[in-house]
Amino acid sequence: MSKVAITPAREYEFEDVGALVVAAYRDLLGNELKETYERELLGVKERAQVCDVLVAKVEGILVGSVTYVGDAHSPMAEGLRNREVGVRMLAVDPKWQHRGVGKSLVSYVIERARREKALSIFLYSLEEMKVAHHLYMNLSFERTPSRDYLMDNGRYLLAFTRYL
Fold it and tell me: For each of the chain's 164 residues, which pLDDT tens digit applies?
């Protein structure tokens, strides 16, 4: 596979990024993907106003995305602590999964967090996202059960932390 290029999403890409994220989550969750969360996933323009939405491209083709939450004060901060950055809505186009795109995106986040002198990186993941869990563990994230979150629907979000 050619090199994965990671850049900030541009406004003209927002619609495509949203569609990619929904496709990836729908591929995993099927009918479990609720309409309200789908709308949130499609809201790239709104996310980009308060966070950095990053895209991964291979030879100019959009293949993945992640939202980088820079600090605990962001409206997208989901449980972040002081000097901690967050990962939200990591997604790889289903046709491009298992080719290193997710690893490239998370590795980029780790290096950026180091440059910004963060103490750790935090994220939540649904229980079904086993492939993502494997990726996180391979990149030295640790399960942080004390920070798991019980959602209104009775499902848990599993917490992962990468100490820097």
Answer: 689 999 999 999 999 999 999 999 999 888 888 888 999 999 999 999 999 999 999 999 999 999 999 999 999 999 999 999 999 999 999 999 999 999 999 999 999 999 999 999 999 999 889 999 999 999 999 999 999 999 888 888 999 999 99
* Total domain count, the chain: 1
Determine the Cα angle at 108 with ends 92 and 60, to 5°. 55
Range of the domain at 134: 4-163
CATH number of the domain encompassing residue 63: 3.40.630.30
DSSP track, the chain: -PPEEEEEPPGGGHHHHHHHHHHHHHHHHGGGS-HHHHHHHH-HHHHHHHSEEEEEEETTEEEEEEEEE-STTSTT-TT--TTEEEEEEEEE-GGGTTSSHHHHHHHHHHHHHHHTT-SEEEEEEETT-HHHHHHHHHTT-EE-GGG-EE-TTSPEEEEEEEE-
